[in-house]
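Batch manifest line 322
LIGAND: zinc ion
JOB: complex structure
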Amino acid sequence: MNREALDDLKQQIPLMGYLQAHHWHPARPLSRGRWMGLCPLHDDHKPSFLVDPNKDLFYCYGCGRGGDVIRFAELYHQVKFAEALVLLRHWRGTPLLHEAARYYRVQLQRHSEAVAYLLQRGIHSLALIEHMQIGYAPGGCLRGWLSPLSYSLPALCQAGLVTDAGYDAFVRRIVFPLEGNLYGRSISDSVPPHRFLPGSKGGLYLWQQAQSFPEVILVEGLFDYAVLWQAGFENITCSLGTHLNVQQFRQLCDRPRTVYVAFDADRNGSGQQAAQCLSQRLRERGITARPVSLPEGHDPNSFFVQGGDARQFQSLLEAARS
Ligand SMILES: [Zn+2]
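JOB STATUS: finished
ARTIFACT:
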């Protein structure tokens, strides 16, 4: 990152906003717009932390530390400079993705082709659409919505929401918000079906909600997740592909549990092979892993779409136990 990019990052993340987002409260006003408050970096009992919002600098009279927002992120999160930049860039992008996802959610109800596509993929429950915060990107209008909210075109391009030429990146795609990313599934066959924004796909999908179950079902796609959740399986998560990243693998191994790996039963065997391979790696980490055999050519989504129900899926889980 060059000097200019660093300055841009700092300019886009005012120190005061960042501090307040990390539960810092200004306690006492000083001259020239400066504030004092308790120091978030040491055990402080009387306000010794000075913030100058005009210069975007802080200084603590207690622990003697001070600097800009990057320095604060380093100290607060106890990370090195490079990691602090990653955290800040990620933090900067989050409100923007949140806003974009909110816009896509509004569009879903306005576009019958999107609702028709969801129905065709077996998604009909409003509770599910709410749970997964499913939206729709019709294309050609995101900029018009976000620009008045003071998101600059370069910021939209950098997040990958808008192309360098200024067009929406997601066009005619069902959109699912992820942790720090968005996934868009095309509803037309003429373009690649899966698309993410640049950057990591994040951890396991809605992991916090599945984490506490002693038995967890892992699927590879969000439409698989959707039909299973809709059928009443709440102990479910999704890896967004058969290849788990380091964070996802660690999450599955974070306590003793049973993992049912319900990947696609591809005709060429690739899903089954990935499930076997992952199960083996999980067992090496002391996790009970059960690859689930779906009828050939099916994934959990098509299994339900073509008439399968919760009881039948439950039988597949039971069969995986033996
Ligand atoms: Zn201090």
